[in-house]
Amino acid sequence: MLTAQTTGLVLHLDRDGMDNGAFSFNGLLVGYVLASSSAAGDWYGYLVFPVVICGMLSTLLSSALSVLLSKWGIPSFNLAFNVVVVSFIAATGPHNPHFPQQGGGPSPAAWGVEALDWLQVLASIPRGIAQCYGSDSLITGCLMSVGMLVCSPIVFSHCLLGSILGALTGLALAATPAEIYDGSWGYNSALTCGAIGGVFYVLNWSSHLMALISAIFAAMVRGAMARFFAAAQVPVVAFPFCIVAALFLLVDSNTKQLLRVPGDRMTYPEEHRKLFKSTTVGVTNVQPDQDPT
Predict the structure, then answer these.
(1) Which pLDDT tens digit goes with each residue over 139-174?
(2) Which UniProt keywords apply (predicted)?
(3) What is the pLDDT of residues 78-102, one digit of tens each?
(4) Mean pLDDT over the full length of the chain
(5) The three-state (H, E, C) secondary structure of the chain, written as one string
């Protein structure tokens, strides 16, 4: 509850959501259900991390869903809580060694940190970028990273951070080492983090923080969707990126903290920071700087 409300205050999100308790209510439900569904016993310290992250996500999704559903005059209720908790539980699965769920039982396959090749985990970061184009080649990922660095350091840094967060989230969710190594957990997070962190929003500390959160959520959605898609032997491709990026672009802010770039003015992140005033109010009302001459 504290994390959810603080996220709304720090990012200056929809004031109604804070005043009527919607943000804190979703955060309270997230913390309660994650704790009650855990099989790790009372006072399991590691559970603090998903509770904090999911609490932040619940606030951002509550704001986004309120904007979406308000077009039909429908309240968002506690839909954000449901989306976040179901995504986390589906992504972790019943046999997760880090975050065991009630009734999950022992894992059928041994998994441990000692089984990881950390050099391969490191190599998965550029591979996650290469997977944006369907390649798991380390060389391809490095070349693409260099190209992004030359064209836009902001896009490069956010895609790199996204790939790192995707791999780390995969590790936390006990993904198989092979899926980590080939970059499968990195590319949706890289695309999402790059899109939110400077392309669709003018880069500032608020949009940067939101980009990092969106990267983690994209990995969670990827893990959840992979379990359902596996039954049909269908890859998740970039569905998690599309879903998460669209939701985060609906986040409502009436302050200068989140400035969304109009589609007809979109160029590249460094240019966005030059074109648009940091004092502009409203997420959809970004105006270009006027030439004083």
Answers:
(1) 999 999 999 999 999 999 999 999 999 999 999 998
(2) Cell membrane, Membrane, Transmembrane, Transmembrane helix
(3) 899 999 999 998 898 777 888 888 7
(4) 86
(5) CHHHHHHHHHCCECHHHHHCCHHHHHHHHHHHHHHHHECCCCCCHHHHHHHHHHHHHHHHHHHHHHHHHHCCCCCCCCHHHHHHHHHHHHHHCCCCCCCCECCCCCCCCCCCHHHCCHHHHHHHHHHHHHHHHCCCCHHHHHHHHHHHHHHCHHHHHHHHHHHHHHHHHHHHCCCCHHHHHCCCCCHHHHHHHHHHHHHCECCCHHHHHHHHHHHHHHHHHHHHHHHHHHHCCCCCCCHHHHHHHHHHCCCCECCCCCCECCHHHCCCHHHHHHHECCCCCCCCCCCECCCCC
Average pLDDT over residues 50-57: 95
Pick the CATH number of 116-252 from 1.10.3430.10, 3.40.720.10, 1.10.10.410, 1.10.3720.10: 1.10.3430.10
pTM as predicted: 0.83
Give percent above pLDDT 70 in the chain.
Answer: 89
